Amino acid sequence: MSAPTSSLTPPEGARPPVRHPDAPAPGELLGAHYDQCFGCGRDQAHGLHLETRAGEGVSVTAVFTVKAAHQGAPGLAHGGVLATALDETIGSLSWVLRTIAVTGRLETDYVLPVPVDTELHLDARVTAVHGRKIYGTATGRIGAPDGPVAVRANALFIEVKVDHFIENGRDTEIRAALEDPDQVRVARAFEVNP
Ligand SMILES: CCCCCCCC/C=C\CCCCCCCC(=O)SCCNC(=O)CCNC(=O)[C@H](O)C(C)(C)COP(=O)(O)OP(=O)(O)OC[C@H]1O[C@@H](n2cnc3c(N)ncnc32)[C@H](O)[C@@H]1OP(=O)(O)O
């Protein structure tokens, strides 16, 4: 591996992102990429249950309601949970690029405290692509899509193949995923052959 840079600024030669021709239409609800995902999984009892929709261009929007289980300080969301929401929202851009990618680096700004019961409205977009490196940015606003900005993140995601999960994930879950037709269908949606 080459030495990672500390910068999240796309290098010279980076290109604007391209919306995949088969990307879900703007406004379309994106399903979970994995039912047990802590960010978006429907069957993950402890998860954030983010509801994400495709946006225009290479963008998505998401809504996350802060629950009592997400507290750090009394009555306030934990910063790590908010980082997860930003990470997951940027990760969901995979659906619009039709490229599987994982977080390499995530830099978060916490602007306002976020109380329990807040509906956090997130939006994310890809800013540039350079080889396997995908540069993204996200914002979380309180109460409404045009509400006050509470959190922001910039991230570098790295494109991977489905083998990344098969080689690194625990056997039990990988075997179950490969035997689940719905999960295989999701993997195919990213144009990979598990
Ligand atoms: C069985 C069926 C299953 C099917 C499932 C299908 C559906 C799945 C769909 C969608 C899944 C999306 C899930 C989203 C969930 C939300 C997002 C997360 O939380 S993801 C989890 C947290 N992240 C990790 O666990 C990554 C851990 N890290 C790694 O595995 C490696 O480090 C990896 C893959 C990121 C890179 O390793 P390398 O060996 O492939 O590549 P190298 O050469 O090291 O890096 C490539 C380029 O990127 C730069 N780079 C890498 N890491 C960097 C860093 N931290 N900072 C800056 N640059 C970095 C390098 O300098 C290099 O740059 P130069 O091409 O040389 O210019």
TrEMBL record:
Domain of life: Bacteria
Keywords in alphabetical order: Apoptosis, Cell membrane, Cell projection, Cytoplasm, Fatty acid metabolism, Hydrolase, Lipid metabolism, Membrane, Transit peptide
Chief location category: membrane
Domain annotation Thioesterase: ranges: 75-135
Protein name as annotated: Acyl-coenzyme A thioesterase THEM4
Membrane topology note: Peripheral membrane protein
Enzyme class: hydrolase
The keyword Oxidoreductase belongs to this UniProt entry's keyword annotation: no
Similarity-based family: Belongs to the THEM4/THEM5 thioesterase family.
Region (Disordered): 1-26
Keyword Cytoplasm: yes
InterPro entries: HotDog_dom_sf (IPR029069), THEM4/THEM5_acyl-CoA_thioest (IPR052365), Thioestr_dom (IPR006683)
Reactions listed under catalytic activity: tetradecanoyl-CoA + H2O = tetradecanoate + CoA + H(+); decanoyl-CoA + H2O = decanoate + CoA + H(+); octanoyl-CoA + H2O = octanoate + CoA + H(+); hexadecanoyl-CoA + H2O = hexadecanoate + CoA + H(+)
